[in-house]
Amino acid sequence: MPWKKRILKIPKGIHAALSTVGDLVVVSTTKVVTKADLDSGVYSHLWNTTPTNGPVSTLPEPTNGRYSKANVNGWEIVRRDLPKITKTSRFWETPNFGDGSRNGYTTHYAHQKVYPREYFEAPRAEIETELMQRPTIDSGPHIFRFSVDRVLDQKAATFRQDLLFCLNLMMENVGAAGIHSSTATREDYLKTVTIDWELFPPGSVEETVAAFLSGRKFDDAKKGLVRERVMLFDRLKPEAYIRGQGGFGTYVGAKFADDLVVFENLNYGNALYVLYHQWQEVSKRSRRDIVRGADTDFDRIPHTKGWQDAFQKIMRRELAKRRKPGG
Q1: Host H or E run for residue 310
Q2: What CA–CA distance (Å, rounded) separates 314 from 26?
Q3: What is the C-alpha to C-alpha distance for residues 247 and 193, in angstroms, rounded to an integer?
Q4: pTM for this one?
Q5: pLDDT for res 325
Q6: Average pLDDT rounded to a whole number, residues 255-283
Q7: CB 27 within 8 A of CB 147
Q8: Cα–Cα 20 to 30 A to 91, which of 63, 188, 278, 315?
Q9: What is the spatial distance between Cα 110 and Cα 123, in angstroms, rounded to a whole number?
Q10: Would you list the DSSP string of 199-245?
Q11: Angle between helices 66-73 and 159-174 (to 10 degrees)
C-alpha cells in the first residue's frame, strides 16, 4: 500500500485529543479518496466493490502487514526481562520390564530452563468502511469514514497498548488514523470484554456435544472441532464442561479440578490452554486477561504434530499431582 504503515508511539495530536473525548473511544478517521485510487484498486484489500449502500466490514488479510497478521493470528513476546522458569520440553515413554504390551509404559518428562513467554490472543478486529459523501462530478473524490470495530476504555490498564495496536492496524490498511468518542454505552462495552461462563456436568459424548452446540450457529467445521475436543477431554474424565455465553460461545473447555482448567477458542483453533489458577479467579477475568502475563501459571499447547499426545501426558501428570493419597 502506498502509505506509511507503522507508528512507534501514539502521536501527540492523538494524545491531545484523548482529553477532549469520553472514556470510551474508537480508532476512526475520515479520508478523501480520489477516483484514481479507487480505479487502480488501492483499497481493494478492504472491499471488492466501492461500498455505496451502507457500511462494509472487513477482517484485514494477514498479508497486509505485521499488525494485520497479529490481528488474525495473535502474537507472543519472550520476556527476557524476567527470570527463567522450568518448562516441560518433551515427553517419551519406555516399556516397563521390557514389555510394554504386558506391563505398560512409563512416561518420562524432559525439563529445561527458558524465559517466560507472554501470549496475546488474536483481536480479529475488523475495519468498517462507510461512504460519507459522493463526488459532485464523475471525476471527483469520495469521502469515506474508516473505523476499527473495537471500543477502547481509557480507564483500562492496557488502554495505551490497545490504542497503539488499533492505530497501527488502521495505518497499515488505510494510511491514516485518528480517534473519536464511541457511541457505545459502558454496558455495551462490558459485553464485549466480559465473559459469562456456563458450567454443565459431564454426560455421554453425544450429550456433551449437544450441550456445547445448543443455541450456537456453528458451521460444520466448528461442529467437528467441538466433537473432537469433547472426545479428547472425555478420556480424562473432567468434573465439568465449560463454555462461554453470548458473543463468547466459541470458548469451549473442561474443568478437571479447582486449579486445573482447559479451554480453547474455536475461532482460532490453533492452541489449547491448560490453566493452573483457581477457576473462581479465572472465571472473573476479561476476554483479554483470561490468559494474562507470562506463562508461569499455564501451558499453551499449539496444534502441531502430536499435540493431542502432549496434552494427555501433561494432563495425566497434573491429575496425578492432585490425586488424593489412596485415591
Answers
A1: helix 307-322
A2: 41
A3: 10
A4: 0.69
A5: 63
A6: 85
A7: yes
A8: 278
A9: 34
A10: EE----HHHHHHHHHTT----HHHHHHHHHHHHHHHTT--SEEEEE-
A11: 120
